Amino acid sequence: MTVAADCQQPSRLRHRAWVSVLVGIGLSAFLAYLAARRVHWSEALQTLHRVEYRYLVLAAFGAVAMHGLRAWRLTVLLRPVRQVRAWPAFCYTAVGFLAILAFPFRIGELARPLLLAEYEEVPFATGLATIAVERCLDGLAFAGLITLATPWLPLPEWAAPLGYLLGIGYLLLLGLFVGAWLFRESCVVIIARMGRRVSPTRGAAIGEAARRFLDGLAFLPDTAAFGEAVLLSAAIWLAGIGVNYASFFALGLMLPVVAAAALQILVTLGVLLPTAPGFVGNFHYFAMMAVGLYGVEQAPALAFAVLTHATILVVNVSLGIGCGMVLQRGLWARLWGFASAQDEKADARGGDLP
Q1: pLDDT over 80 at 19, yes or no
Q2: Over 50: is that where the pLDDT of 11 sits?
């Protein structure tokens, strides 16, 4: 690869990133329009006037508990690498979720590895590995929820096969991670060789990054730690269903528990699509679709979606800002500084052109 091609690559990535942002914003706006186009706003406002705040507070506490469970899981994943205390892990988790909400195309996922590198001296690549494993565990829990709940939910016929396919896919990915850990030395050598073919001067650095990434998979062969992480992942998703169920009562929606599971499934599928920051539009449309399956009319359904989204948003923003202040670190400057550093490196390579 030539120096000119190296310089063109960052600009192409930036172009694709901005295209992703615009697509996400456009899709969110379209889904928001679909959610609100036939709603009588007076009815929706009347529904919001009947809010039972005690249930809303209960849902908010459930959202906080979910962060606590995620932080606990993080300590389990990092246990072979670093003993991270519960409170700092909670702060890293809360700030990371705020970044995911605030930044497009999930660049906020970089927040937690950056924080772990800054405060716990965990290599950045090792922190990325914990994210990869978490996504696998969450994917397995989601697939299990779809598979188990489909017989009791008025979901489309393709839902059950989707659950099976997702479960098989995530199991294969976890198996790949386990194999990479068991044969990590060979994997590091292979990756380093491939790196040297792409960039002869960076082969060793790429190999070292691969080694540090594999360090983040060290807990996988430990059956006790893996089982604990799996149980925590299941608890996180069950807590999410509990938050949904409490939110029903906040607006007097007498829906069954399985409706809370349907809401969890459909909203998760919705936010997997390209979306604007905060999941605006995507969350509302799919939340309305979920409660609509159980006969809730559009006006109260929109009121429910707006109220639930606002509650979750307030909890995540408050926790993220509060924990960020506790950590005494400007996260936004760190993230944009990381992006700016990549631009500066690209510009420096461009400056070397004859």
Answers
A1: no
A2: yes
CB atoms within 10 A of CB 49: 7
Taking CA atoms, 48 is separated from 53, 65, 252, 310, 319, in Å, by 11, 25, 10, 12, 25
**Lookup: tokens for 271:** 């936010």
Phi-psi category of residue 29: left, alpha or beta, with phi > 0 → left and psi -120 to 50 → alpha:
alpha
Asked if residue 113 lies in contact with residue 127, where contact means CB atoms within 8 angstroms, the answer is: yes
Q: Which residues of 122-145 are buried (b: 16+ CB within 10 A; e: fewer)?
A: bbbbbbbbbbebbebbbbbbbbbb
Over the chain, what is the mean pLDDT? 84
Q: What is the pTM of this model?
A: 0.83
Task: Report yes or no: 54 and 247 within 8 Å, Cβ to Cβ.
Answer: no
Give the burial class of 224: count Cβ atoms within 10 A of its Cβ; 0-12 exposed, 13-18 middle, 19 or more buried.
exposed
User: Is residue 10 pLDDT above 60, yes or no?
Assistant: no
- Burial code (b: 16+ CB inside 10 Å, e: under 16) for 298-310 equals bbbbbbbbbbbbe
Under a CB-based contact definition with an 8 Å cutoff, are residues 77 and 130 in contact?
yes
Q: 304 near 287, Cβ under 8 Å?
A: yes
Q: What is the largest CA-CA distance in the chain?
A: 71
Rounded to 5°, angle at Cα 13 from 10 and 18? 130
Task: Compute φ and ψ for 256, nearest 5 degrees.
Answer: -75, 165
Name the one residue in this structure whose structure tokens are 């190999």.
207
Domain ranges of the chain: 42-339
- Determine the Cα–Cα distance for residues 128 and 281; give it in Å rounded to an integer: 29
The confidence score (pLDDT) of residue 188 equals 86
Ramachandran area for residue 288 (φ above 0: left; ψ -120 to 50: alpha; else beta): alpha
Q: Are 253 and 303 in contact (CB under 8 A)?
A: no
Measured at the alpha carbon of residue 91, what is the angle toward residues 278 and 228, in degrees to the nearest 5? Answer: 95
Distance CA 185, CA 211 (A): 8
